[in-house]
Design goal:
Pfam family, one: TAF2_3rd
Number of strands: 30
Largest sheet: 5 strands, mixed
Number of domains: 4
Structural class: alpha+beta
GO molecular function: chromatin binding; metallopeptidase activity; RNA polymerase II general transcription initiation factor activity; transcription cis-regulatory region binding; zinc ion binding
Family: Belongs to the TAF2 family.
Number of helices: 31
Distance between the termini: 34 Å
Strand content: 5-15%
Helix content: 25-40%
Organism: Mytilus galloprovincialis
Radius of gyration: 35 Å
GO biological process, one term: transcription initiation at RNA polymerase II promoter
C-alpha cells in the first residue's frame, strides 16, 4: 500500500508543465489542467442499482451512488483525483442526466440547464469550502425531493413512493443542527445539507461534505417504535461528522481517531440530551464491553498507528488493510478516549477547545486563493495538543502516551476485607498484565463505598500491579445506624439490613463507578452486597454490573432482588430487561428448589393480563414504551426456562402459544410486527433436542414430530404465508421464522435442507431476509459439512450486486467458521485455500473491505501457519535438527510455538525500528545471494531456531518455515546425488507432486539459487545469512501470492519447482582435501552444531560460509568459486549460474548454516 499511498506522494500522475507556463507558476496565478477520462464498468467506488423489471430506468427506480467504507478513500475509483484527506481544494461539479433523473452532489446547486435535445439536463454544483477528494460524492436517480419545513437549507431525497415515511423520519433533523450549533457556539460550516436515501447502500450512513447517503431501510413510519432510536442516532451522528470529519478532516491516518472520536462524542451528547442520561451511560457501558472483549480476544487497538504497529494479522498503518471489525471497534474506542479526556479537563473546557478549532478552520477556509493557509482545516494530534495547551494550559501528552499511543485496556481484580477492630476496609487491587490486550495503568483510581451514613468517594494512586489500601469507614456498625440510609443522589431510603453483616457498616463497594477509565473490573464481594447495589443504586451501569454478578449467586434472595427490579416502574427499562434474562438463568440453576409458578409468569399477568381473566392478555397498547419492550422480552426470557428433564415446562409452552392466539392489535396505533417476531423467537427458544429412533430407515416427516414441535411448525407456516400476503416492516416476522426453522433442524425435528435457505438468499429478496438466510446457511455448512453450499456462498460473495450482503456473509463465516484450525474436515481442502488466496489478492482487489474480510477468514481458518491440507511430495521428510524430530508436514506447528505468533513482546529482536519494518517489507531479499567472505564471518553462536530439512534420494529442496523474528537464521542440510545418479534421475523422474501456490508453500528452488553462491578458500566454514523480510504466512498489506522462481540452469530439466533432477550437471569440484583436514573440520562442526549469525539488512551483499562434508565412504569439501573473468562456462551454464571446472564428488553432502 505504501507504493500508492497519496499521503507519501506516491500513486499520483505526474504532469510536466510546458515552459511557457513557468511565469504563471512563479506569479502564483491559477491555471487549469484538463484530464479526459472514461469510466467503463466500474467495480468499486460507485454502485448502480438496476432492478430487473419492465419499464424505463425512472419507472424501475434505477439509481446510482458513490460510496466509501468508514475511513477508506475510494474517490479515485470513479474520477481522477489526489485521493487523500490532506489535499484540499474547491469543487465545481457538472452532472448530466436524463430528464426524469435528479443528480445530487456536494456543494450548492447553482443551476440546472436543459440540453438542446430536450432529452437530458445538466446539474451544476459548486463547493466553495476547501474539501478533500474522499469527501466528494454524488447520487443520481428518480428521487422525490422534500425541503425540510423547519430548515430550508436542508433537503431530503428518497426513491419514488417513499415521501410520506420520509417526512416522519426526517421531521426532527433540525433539532440536531440546533443542538450542535448551541453546544459548539458555532454555526453549521456549510450553506446547505442534503440527505439521500438509496437502496443497496454500502453502509447505513456514509457522510460527505454537505450531504450524507443513507440506506432506505432506515426510513420508517410513525407506527414503528424500534427503528426510531437507531435512525435518529445515525442521522445525528451524520450531522456531527459534517463539523468534524468533513469540514475539519484528519491530516493523516494516524490522526483519524481525533475526527472520529470527536464526532462520536458530540453524537453521544445529543443522545444524552434527547434520550436521557440513562440511555447514554448504558451506551457507554456497552461500547466499553465491546472494546474490552475485542482487545482480549483479538489484540489491542492502537489509536495512533504511527506509535505502534501492533501484532495483528493485518497491517494497521493503512486504512485499506485493517480488518472491518477492527475499524468498527476503533470508532468505539476513539469515542471512549474522548469521553475520558472530557473527564480529565472538564466538559466546558473541551467544548471551548472544539470551538477554537472550528473558529480557526472557518477563518482559514475563507482564504480562497492561498492554498497554503488551509492547514487549519486539517486536524492532527499535534495541532490538537497545542490548542489544548493554549486554551486550558494543561499538558495532555502523558494522557496521549498512555491511551492513544498504546493498545489495550486496564484490567483490575479487586477484593476487600472489613477489619472490625480498626473499622477499616482493607482493599486489594491487582492488575492482570498477562492477558492479551492488557494495559498497565499508572494513575488515579476512584473507589466508592456505600456506608450506613452515606456514599463516600476515595481516590488512590495505582503504581504497582498489586496494591493494598486501608480505607477508614465513616460509619460504625449497624447498631448505631440511622433510620434512613442516604444514597449518592441525596435520596434517603429505608433498607432491610437483616441480610448484611452486623459488625460491618459497608453496604457495597465499587471501583471506578463513573467509567472514568477504559477498564475491565472483576470485583469480589458477598452476594447480599450485590443485591443491595441492584436494589438501591441509581446508576444504570452499577445495576447492570450487579445483575451480571448475581447470575453466579442463585438463591431465594437473588430471585427476590431480580423480581423487585423487574416490577419496579422507576427502573430504567433496559435494566429491567437484563433482570428478566438473568432471572431465567437463576431459575434454571434453582430448578430443584424452585417453588411456585414459573418465573416471571405472575409478573407478566399482573402487568399485561386482562382484569377479568389474567391468563388472557389485554389488547395491545404500546403507548407506554417501557411496557412495550418488557412485553417483547419476558416471553423470550421465559422460553429459556427448563425443568429437571432439561425441557421447557409445559405451562410455559402453553403460555407462549396462548400469546399467539390472543394477540389483538386492532386498536393499537403502533405496529406489532416486532412483538410478533419476538413471540416466534420465544416459541423457537422452547425447542429442545428431539429423541430419534435409529433403524427405521425413513427420514424425518411431519408425522414423526412431537406435539409441541408440530404446533410451533404450524404457527411458523401460518406467519410465513401471511407475510407473503401482508409483509410487515422490514420483514421482521420472516426473519424470525427462518431462524426458528433452523433451530428445528438443528434439534433434529426437521431434515436439514440448504436449498430452502438458498432460495431466500437470492438477489432480489429483501436485504434483512437474505442476511438471515445466509446466517442459517453458514450454520448448515458447519454442521452438515456440505462443500457445494460453501462454494455457492463464496460465489455469491464474489459476484453479488449488494456489497453489504457480501460483507455480512463473510463476517458470518468468520464468526461461525466451517472448521477449526488444523482440523481434519472434508471442507478443509486445497481448493478452498487457493480460492481464498485468489479472492484476497486479485478477485476482490477493488473492494478493500471485502478483501480484508477474506483475510480475516483465512486467518481464522489457518492462522499464520501453512494450511495442513496442502500436499507435500511423498518422498520428502522434514527433519528438525535442533529438537531431533521428524515430521512429514511442516504446516503442523507445535502448541508451544503457537503463542509465539501471537505475542506482543517488546524485545530487542522485534524492536529494530517500526518505520524500517515497513520499508523492509517492500523489498524482497534474495536469501541465496552472498558476497565474498571475510575472515571473521565464521564466528558461531548458538542458534535459536532449527530449520526443517526435506531430504530425498533424488532431489533437494529448501523450505522457508514461518518465523516472526526476521533476524533469526536457519540451519538446514542439503543432500544431493552424484553425477551419474543425477543423469538417471533426469531420465526417469520427470514429475513431482503438485504443490499449490500458497503463501507458505512457495519454496525457493535450490536448483535456481545454488549457482549464485560464490567461491571461498578450502576448509573455510561457509554460512548463508538467511534474511527474510517478506513473511508469506502473515496476512499483511504487502502479502501477495508468491511465484516460483523461473531462472534455472539450462540443462536442468524440471517440471515442478520442487524438482532438483540434474542439479549438479554444471557444478564441478575445484580441488580435493586430504582426510586429516577433513576430520578436523568435521569435529569442529560437531562441536559448534548450534549457532546463529547476526543479520545486516543494510548491506546489499551477504557474507556467507558453508561447511562441507562427505557422506558414506569418501569425504571431501566442495568449494564454489565466484565466476571470474577468463573462465569458460559449460553448455548448461547461464549468466546467473557460472560453471566450476573440476571433477564432481560421487555423493556430496552439504551442511549450510
Amino acid at each position: 500500500m505504501t507504493t500508492v499511498d497519496p499521503d507519501t506522494g506516491n500513486g499520483e500522475v505526474t504532469i510536466r508543465m510546458p515552459p511557457e507556463s513557468h511565469p504563471l507558476i512563479s506569479e502564483l496565478r491559477p491555471f487549469k489542467v484538463c484530464i479526459e477520462f472514461s469510466l467503463e464498468q466500474p467495480k468499486g467506488g460507485i454502485h448502480f442499482v438496476t432492478p430487473n423489471m419492465e419499464g424505463t430506468p425512472a419507472e424501475r427506480s434505477c439509481h446510482l451512488f458513490t460510496y466509501k467504507s468508514l475511513y477508506e478513500n475510494s474517490s479515485r475509483m470513479w474520477f481522477p483525483c489526489i485521493d487523500t484527506f490532506s489535499e484540499l481544494c474547491t469543487w465545481k461539479i457538472e452532472i448530466t442526466t436524463e430528464m426524469d433523473m435528479t443528480a445530487v452532489s456536494c456543494g450548492d446547486l447553482i443551476e440546472v440547464m436543459q440540453m438542446p435535445d430536450r432529452k437530458s439536463k445538466t446539474f451544476h454544483y459548486f463547493l466553495s469550502t476547501p474539501t478533500a477528494a474522499p469527501n466528494i460524492a454524488m447520487a443520481v436517480g428518480p428521487f422525490e425531493i422534500l425541503v425540510d419545513p423547519n430548515m430550508h437549507e436542508v433537503t431530503h431525497f428518497c426513491l419514488p413512493h417513499l415521501t410520506e415515511i420520509l417526512k416522519h423520519t426526517t421531521g426532527y433533523i433540525h433539532e440536531a443542527f440546533e443542538f450542535y450549533e448551541e453546544l459548539l457556539s458555532s454555526r453549521y460550516p456549510y450553506s446547505c445539507y442534503k440527505q439521500v436515501f438509496v437502496d443497496e447502500s454500502f453502509i447505513d450512513m456514509d457522510p460527505y461534505a454537505t450531504m450524507t447517503i443513507f440506506s432506505t431501510n432506515l426510513l420508517h413510519s410513525s407506527r414503528i417504535i424500534n427503528q426510531t432510536i437507531e435512525t435518529r442516532t445515525l442521522m445525528a451522528a451524520a450531522v456531527a461528522e459534517q463539523f468534524f470529519g468533513c469540514f475539519l478532516s484528519m491530516a493523516s491516518w494516524p490522526d483519524a481517531w481525533l475526527t472520529v472520536g470527536i464526532a462520536k462524542y458530540l453524537a453521544g451528547l445529543f443522545i444524552k440530551n434527547k434520550f436521557g442520561n440513562n440511555e447514554y451511560r448504558y451506551l457507554v457501558s456497552k461500547e466499553m464491553k465491546l472494546v474490552q472483549d475485542y482487545e482480549h480476544r483479538v489484540g489491542g487497538i492502537v489509536l495512533d498507528p504511527a506509535a505502534k504497529h501492533g501484532t495483528h494479522h493485518f497491517f494497521v498503518w493503512h486504512r485499506q488493510t485493517i480488518s472491518p471489525k477492527y475499524a468498527e471497534i476503533f470508532q468505539k474506542k476513539a469515542h471512549l478516549i474522548l469521553r475520558m479526556f472530557e473527564i480529565r479537563i472538564g466538559q466546558q473546557l473541551l467544548i471551548q477547545v472544539l470551538n477554537k478549532l472550528l473558529a480557526l478552520a472557518v477563518s482559514s477556509a475563507q482564504q480562497k486563493f492561498l492554498a497554503n493557509t488551509w492547514g487549519n482545516t486539517l486536524l492532527s494530534t499535534s495541532s490538537f495538543t497545542k490548542i489544548i495547551s493554549t486554551v486550558t494550559g494543561k499538558d495532555i501528552q502523558p494522557f496521549l502516551d498512555l491511551w492513544v499511543s498504546q493498545s489495550g485496556c486496564a484490567r483490575f481484580f479487586g477484593s476487600f476485607v472489613f477489619n472490625r477492630k480498626r473499622n477499616v476496609v482493607e482493599l486489594e487491587i491487582k492488575q492482570d498484565l498477562s492477558a492479551k490486550g492488557a494495559l498497565k495503568y499508572v494513575g488515579p483510581l476512584t473507589v466508592t463505598i456505600q456506608e450506613l451514613d452515606g456514599s463516600f468517594n476515595h481516590t488512590f494512586k495505582i503504581e504497582e500491579n498489586k496494591t493494598k489500601f486501608d480505607i477508614t469507614c465513616h460509619s460504625k456498625s449497624r447498631r448505631n445506624k440511622k433510620k434512613k440510609i442516604p444514597l449518592v443522589t441525596g435520596e434517603e431510603v429505608d433498607m432491610d439490613l437483616s441480610a448484611m453483616d452486623a459488625d460491618s457498616p459497608v453496604l457495597w463497594l465499587q471501583i471506578d463507578p463513573k467509567l472514568e477509565l477504559l477498564r475491565q473490573v472483576t470485583f469480589e464481594q458477598p452476594d447480599y452486597m450485590w443485591q443491595y447495589q441492584l436494589r438501591y443504586e441509581r446508576d444504570v451501569v452499577s445495576q447492570k454490573e450487579a445483575i451480571a454478578a448475581l447470575e453466579h449467586y442463585p438463591s431465594p434472595a437473588t430471585r427476590k432482588a431480580l423480581t423487585d427490579v423487574l416490577e419496579n416502574e422507576h427502573c430504567f427499562y433496559k435494566v429491567r430487561i437484563d433482570s428478566a434474562q438473568c432471572l431465567a438463568k437463576v431459575a434454571n440453576s434453582m430448578v430443584t428448589s424452585w417453588a411456585g409458578p414459573p418465573a416471571m409468569m405472575t409478573i407478566f399477568r399482573k402487568i399485561f393480563g386482562s382484569h377479568s381473566c389474567p391468563a388472557i392478555i389485554r389488547q395491545n397498547n404500546f403507548s407506554n414504551f417501557q411496557h412495550y419492550f418488557l412485553l417483547k422480552t419476558i416471553p423470550r426470557a421465559m422460553a429459556h426456562l427448563r425443568n429437571l428433564h432439561a425441557i421447557c415446562p409445559p405451562e410455559v409452552f402453553e403460555f407462549i402459544m396462548a400469546l399467539f392466539k390472543y394477540n389483538d392489535n386492532s386498536r393499537n396505533k403502533y405496529s406489532d410486527c416486532y412483538y410478533r417476531a419476538s413471540l416466534i423467537d420465544a416459541a423457537a427458544a422452547t425447542i429442545t433436542p428431539a429423541i430419534t429412533i435409529v433403524g427405521s430407515g425413513q427420514g424425518l416427516s411431519t408425522d414423526s414430530l412431537t406435539a409441541e414441535a408440530k404446533r410451533i411448525l404450524e404457527e411458523i407456516t401460518r406467519c410465513l404465508n401471511l407475510e407473503k400476503l401482508l409483509p410487515c416492516y422490514r420483514h421482521v416476522v420472516t426473519v424470525s421464522c427462518l431462524k426458528a426453522i433452523r433451530i428445528l433442524q438443528k434439534n433434529g425435528h426437521l431434515t436439514t435442507d440448504s436449498t430452502f435457505f438458498i432460495n431466500y438468499a437470492q438477489y432480489g429478496v429483501f436485504r434483512d431476509v437474505r442476511i438471515t438466510a445466509l446466517e442459517c446457511l453458514v450454520d448448515v455448512i458447519k454442521t452438515d459439512l456440505m462443500p457445494g453450499d460453501l462454494y455457492w456462498l463464496l460465489d455469491l460473495i464474489e459476484s453479488d450486486r449488494d456489497k453489504h450482503v457480501c460483507h455480512i456473509a463473510m463476517r458470518q463465516l468468520i464468526d461461525n467458521p466451517p472448521f477449526k484450525r488444523q482440523e481434519h474436515n472434508p471442507l478443509h481442502t486445497e481448493d478452498l485455500v487457493e480460492r481464498l488466496w485468489k479472492m484476497m489478492n486479485s478477485t476482490l482487489s477493488h473492494d478493500s473491505r471485502l478483501r480484508c474480510d477474506v483475510a480475516d477468514l483465512y486467518f481464522t481458518l489457518y492462522g499464520r501457519t501453512r494450511p495442513t491440507c496442502l500436499v507435500i511430495p511423498d518422498n520428502l521428510v522434514v527433519l528438525n535438527l535442533k529438537d531431533k524430530k521428524t515430521r512429514m508436514n511442516p504446516a503442523i506447528v507445535p502448541e508451544e510455538l503457537e503463542d509465539m505468533f501471537e505475542s506482543d513482546d517488546d524485545d530487542d529482536m522485534n524492536l529494530n525500528s517500526s518505520m524500517n519494518a515497513a520499508e523492509s517489507d517492500d523489498k524482497e531479499i534474495n536469501v541465496m545471494d552472498v558476497s565474498p567472505l571475510k575472515d571473521d564471518v565464521s564466528l558461531k553462536r548458538k542458534s535459536d531456531m532449527a530449520f526443517d530439512l526435506m531430504m530425498s534420494d533424488h532431489s533437494m529442496v529448501t523450505s522457508l518455515t514461518h518465523n516472526e523474528d526476521s533476524n533469526s537464521e536457519f540451519k538446514f542440510k542439503l543432500k544431493g546425488t552424484s553425477m551419474e545418479q543425477t543423469s538417471d534421475t533426469m531420465a526417469t523422474d520427470k514429475k513431482t507432486p503438485k504443490t499449490p501456490v500458497t503463501p507458505s508453500s512457495a519454496n525457493l528452488s535450490f536448483a535456481t539459487e545454488l549457482s549464485k553462491f560464490v567461491g571461498v578458500k578450502p576448509e573455510e566454514d561457509i554460512t548463508v545469512a538467511s534474511s527474510f523480510t517478506k513473511d508469506t504466512d502473515r496476512l499483511s498489506d504487502d502479502s501477495m501470492s508468491p511465484s516460483q522462481s523461473s531462472s534455472a540452469p539450462a540443462s536442468a530439466v524440471t517440471s515442478q519447482p520442487t524438482s532438483f533432477s540434474g542439479l549438479f550437471s554444471s557444478v564441478s569440484m575445484v580441488e580435493s582435501v586430504d582426510h586429516s583436514k577433513l576430520h578436523k573440520v568435521k569435529k569442529k562442526k560437531k562441536k559448534n552444531k548450534k549457532h546463529k549469525h547476526k543479520h545486516r539488512h543494510e548491506k546489499s551483499e551477504r557474507d556467507t560460509s558453508v561447511d562441507l562434508f562427505k557422506d558414506s565412504e569418501q569425504e571431501s569439501v566442495l568449494s564454489l568459486d565466484r565466476f571470474k573473468e577468463g573462465h569458460k562456462s559449460s553448455e548448461s551454464s547461464t549468466v546467473n549460474s557460472p560453471s566450476v571446472f573440476n571433477n564432481p564428488p560421487s555423493s556430496p553432502e552439504f551442511e549450510v548454516i
